[in-house]
Design goal:
- There is one protein chain.
- With about 600 residues, the chain is α/β, with parallel strands linked by helices.
- The protein starts with 10 loop residues before the first helix and ends in a 16-residue tail after the last helix.
- It folds into 2 domains: about 325 residues, ABC transporter transmembrane region fold (Up-down Bundle); about 230 residues, 3-Layer(aba) Sandwich (Rossmann fold), CATH 3.40.50.300.
- It is built from 23 helices and 10 strands.
- The radius of gyration is 35 Å and the shape is elongated.
- About 60% of the residues lie in helices and about 10% in strands.
- The strands form 2 sheets. A 6-stranded mixed beta sheet has the order 6-7-8-3-9-10, with helices on both faces. A 4-stranded antiparallel beta sheet has the order 2-1-4-5, with helices on one face.
- The longest helix is centred in the middle third of the chain and has 54 residues.
Length: about 600
């Protein structure tokens, strides 16, 4: 996201927007802020006390007075250090809590993003934004944006004390201030660009790494490890170049600040030395106080360069994070049905109507005027070749994608309700889908069925669902409901994963069940178990079967044949075979594939229609 021409791209505007996450910790922030003037005052007082000891107590030879001055100096030191400790603790506590809130909000927002966003943004980029970009803020909040306010308070107090002691010396000492302002602005702009480039390069490298690790098996099988490492090294060099350039600017700024500090002290001594030697208005104590003030004022200014780099990293991270948060989430979609206590799907029993339904992922239309009616309790099969629009219909019904034209409505007792007008969370409690590719988490069987907390009631529902799909013996053999399934379910076969997916749907008891090629990867024995379970469990429910195997398609109440985004045929299995059209050719091609001559091994499981 480019920062040019947009007010929100400034670091200050980004940090102001960030306040919503820091607001709950405003008590700790206030405590840290309250310590700032104490630290600033103590810093300004210490050179004044030292000047008094040099100019008054030492020449007078009054040991008691000198002792009292020393005790006062020690007391100021303890007050300053105590205030600093309170400030650091309070601001770090507030900073870490703020980052935790932001991290949760970003993760929650990512989970609510529409499927279109994941089609164009690599997962690695999302990982970078939710991990390294958020972590960059933690350092900033703890050691950057808040402590820089203390530094500013210290600088103001020191400048005020210097002018109070001797305005002429103060003016001479601060003659280099305009140069400092120019240097800081130039380096700030350069660091901002470099830190943004660093974050972008890191996001690309992280995305590449995540993708290649997920496909490590393919990399190995096709012997592409060397090429993959080389490509990752190229991406790493982009990140390295950006980081090195940022470090050069950071180091230069630190060195320039250090040199200017030394030059300012030299100018001060050169200007004050004649008067000190002649005893003409400038005492040794006053000169010491000014030298001490200069050393103290340049410490926060010198550290400001490092804190500036940290703030620039945070600004770059915030730009990327807010670029993500500004993406519209699913819940932000317009809803004709206002949110209220009344359920818009009250009386829904699985009926669906599509009239002139059109949809495209890009320029090419996928659905081109689909008309379809599914009655409650009906089993409707949708078949067709790959790319004909079957799975797109399923994705629209569960609102994985929005933006369709025409009408796609759910039939309720009060009348049809457009799918686009039903909140996704509510819709997916009533409409469930079993996908072809089942994703299992590295958790227990119970979690992978419930996808959430498992209490005693849920545990009983899980057991009944597993028994209904014929997976109870599978779970028992693998160690029971609390046994882990391994990463991505690596300990289970494709058929076993599908059984868990069926149980996952059944435990929610939806009104409409969508089977999107749900048993395409299931072996014949497992398919027979699933078919028996489906006949028992789906009785009384509405089922939409997409590109299912012939055994299920034959039993459907209605079969719709898709071709190039349109329904070209519809009817029962017998009617469509008699018609001798597209469906008959699909069935014939499947039977030929099963009866291929010359096979000596056992016949394979029936192939999908698509």
């Amino acid at each position: 996201m480019s920062g040019s021409g947009r007010a929100s791209s400034s670091a200050l505007a980004l940090l102001r927007r960030f306040w919503r996450f820091a607001r709950p910790s405003r008590g700790w922030i206030a405590a840290g802020a309250a310590a700032m003037p104490v630290v600033a005052a103590a810093t300004a007082l210490r050179p004044l006390v030292a000047k008094h000891a040099i100019d008054t107590d030492l020449p007078s030879g009054d040991a008691a007075a000198l002792g009292a001055t020393v005790l006062g100096f020690v007391a100021i030191v303890f007050v300053e250090f105590g205030a600093q400790a309170l400030q650091v603790y309070a601001l770090q506590r507030a900073g870490h809590a703020t980052v935790a809130r932001l991290r949760r909000h970003v993760f929650e927002h990512v989970l609510r993003l529409p499927a279109r966003y994941f089609d164009r943004v690599p997962v690695g980029t999302l990982l970078s934004r939710t991990t390294s970009d958020v972590e960059a803020l933690s350092e900033t909040l703890s050691f950057g944006v808040f402590t820089i306010l203390t530094d500013l308070a210290v600088i103001v107090s020191i400048v005020a004390a210097m002018f109070a002691l001797d305005a002429r010396l103060a003016a001479i000492t601060l003659a280099l201030a305009p140069a400092l302002v120019v240097i800081v602005r130039v380096f700030s702009a350069a660091l901002r660009k470099l830190q943004l480039e660093t974050r972008r390069a890191q996001g690309v490298a992280t995305g590449f790494l995540a993708e290649r690790l997920a496909g490590a098996e393919i990399v190995k099988v096709f012997d592409r490890a060397d090429d993959t490492v080389g490509a990752y090294e190229t991406l790493g060099r982009r990140y390295l170049r950006a980081t090195q350039r940022a470090n050069v600017y950071d180091a230069l700024l630190y060195a320039v600040m250090d040199g200017i500090a030394a030059l300012a002290i030299a100018i001060l001594v050169f200007a004050a030395a004649p008067d000190v030697a002649a005893g003409a208005g400038i005492s040794v104590g006053l000169l010491y106080a000014f030298v001490d003030y200069l050393q103290r004022i340049f410490v926060p200014i010198r550290e400001f360069s490092g804190k500036l780099a940290t703030i620039q990293r945070a600004a770059a991270s915030l730009e990327r994070i807010y670029g993500l948060l500004d993406e519209p989430a699913e819940d932000a979609a317009p809803a004709a049905v206002p949110a209220s206590s009344e359920d818009p799907l009250a009386g829904f029993r699985g009926g669906v109507r599509a009239e002139g339904l059109r949809f495209s992922y890009g320029d090419e239309p996928v659905l081109c005027g689909v008309d379809l009616a599914i009655e409650p309790g009906q089993v409707v099969a949708v078949v067709g070749r790959t790319g004909s629009g079957k799975s797109t219909l399923a994705r629209l019904l569960v609102r994985l994608y929005d933006g369709y034209e025409g009408s796609l409505s759910l039939c309720t007792e009060r009348g049809p309700v457009q799918v686009r007008d039903v909140p996704p969370a509510l819709l997916r409690r009533r409409v469930a889908m079993v996908p072809q590719d089942v994703f299992l988490f590295d958790e227990s069987f119970a979690f992978n069925v419930a996808l959430g907390p498992v209490d005693d009631t849920m545990r009983r529902r899980i057991e009944r669902a597993l028994e209904a799909v014929g997976a109870s013996d599978l779970v028992a053999r693998r160690g029971g409901l609390d046994a882990p399934v391994g990463e991505r379910g690596e300990r289970l076969s494709a058929g076993e994963k599908q059984l868990i997916a069926f149980a996952r749907v059944l435990v929610r008891s939806p009104d409409l069940v969508i089977l999107d090629e749900a048993t395409a990867s299931v072996d014949s024995l497992t398919e027979a178990r699933v078919q028996r379970a489906m006949e028992r469990v789906f009785a009384g429910r509405t089922v939409l079967v997409i590109a299912h195997r012939l055994s299920t398609v034959q039993k459907a109440d209605l079969i719709c044949v898709f071709d190039r985004g349109r329904i070209v045929e519809r009817g029962t299995h017998a009617q469509l075979l008699t018609a001798g059209g597209v469906y008959a050719r699909l069935v014939a091609s499947e039977l030929v594939a099963q009866d291929e001559p010359g096979e000596t091994a056992p016949a394979p499981a029936p192939a999908p229609l698509a």
